[in-house]
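To whoever is covering the structure queue this week,

Two jobs came back overnight. Logging them here so there's a record in the thread.

Job A:
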Amino acid sequence: VFIAQSRASGSHRDVEDEELTRIFVMIPKTYTEEDLREKFKMYGDIEYCSIIKNKTTGESKGLGYVRYLKPSQAARAIEECDRSYRAILAEPKNKSSESFEHDYYSNNMRQDLRGHTLPFCMQPEFCGFEKTETRIQEPVSKRLSVVSRLPFIQEQLFALFDLVPGLEYCDVQRDPHTNSGYAVIQYSTAASAIYAKYKLHGFEYPPGNRLTVIFLEDGNDSSE
């Protein structure tokens, strides 16, 4: 595999610094920078490792960077490391880290859903559910409540729930006293809402922050 550089990219070393030698990985929150270095040193000479932390609490976000001396070493790490690390080439430093982290979360979550998605059918139910799973005990509706201990960003939450077809609106609210996240989600059909709750209740977004998803009364007959 050869990695080409644009003629407009400046010096070769600049391109390596920005695009070819830094990888971005998903790691356990217990990892230290030394743990990260120990796991990835087998693929080449590491210039530095860094772990992304919450600016407020100082806790690890479960994400990190590994910078190698050579592009070939970074490429080898991406190809050979365990798939659970979700290793990719990092974006250049001139791109917002928050934007890059959000894209990374969204893309990986999209892959997770594609890998485990239950197939949609032409009927209002999803054919992948077992019969026992369709006998839902709680009243169902097209509207969901989503609660998180961290505040939501409207665009990010919308993108997350829009992975399930039929999203009509996403209304994010914030409690000024607790700074927790609260949102109301509505789908065009109860089937989509059931599926969203089934897949996203307990989902960690961002990693380490579990979402609580429950049905909200939408004024319609739940037996329908």
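Job B:
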Amino acid sequence: MPAASVIVVASIAFLSAQTSCFLNFFLLYSIFFKKKSPIKPDWSLIYFRFGADSVYTLFIALNMLYFLLLQISSVFNFKNFIFYLLWPSLTLGTIRATVVFLITLDRVIAAYIPVFYHNYRSRIPIIIVFTTIICYIVFEQYVLFGFCGYVLDVPLSCDNLKCAISQCYYDYWLWYEQIMYVLIGILTISLCFRLFVWNYCNGVSTSHVVTRATRIALLESVMICTFDAFPSFLLAHIPSVNFQNVGPISAASKNTGFAIEAIIICRLLIFKKESVQPMWSTSRISPSS
């Protein structure tokens, strides 16, 4: 029988993933069908992230449900089925991390060079961004099946990511995840410095410069650093904290962060009635809302 902590942690991951999935679908439905929030063309990446999150957390919820079923009985164990659940999750996780990085980069450029952003941001077709993301996803499949030479043959006893894919691709996936954490962290620090330190030194009220798009970018970055990077640090540096002893703690932490983030964004975009001040005072050009 698995330890009680394993069941509890997996259940938290399952419930939080379900919550995040529902809330992100609710966000898209409220914005595009109920018109609860104005649709803004320059928010394309943010809307895309809502969609990616809804599908991503759906697959994570299915992963956690299958994991819980395996803890109950081996009768639910089907050859290679865990790979078919994990593979889309890995791809969607890469898409999410890349989109969060691009959203944060977008906000940094808007904050530091607003005139340039205002003049040239709309000239970049969003299809180019999506095509670049798709190309990287194709490259990842090459890394898995080509460079790493992965052959689909998952042991029946396997119930987690590390044994479902090759060590080569697992190392690459960890490397990519850590690089994205570092880049997003650097951009977030830069954005916070520009919005809070720089503006404070120049006597500009912070409440008048932080738009909803910027708040969402900051929220995403803080959630990644808190709920994604921290559990990864624990797993890497504390041997007693591992999958066998405590269960999918990384998935539980990440999805708890996703759920909290979705709740805050729902309040910000759907339920908050107050008007939001433009990012720059009326004497400056407003790059984006």
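Note for Job B: The chain has one domain: 7-200+209-269.

Please reply-all if you pick these up so we don't duplicate work.
Q.
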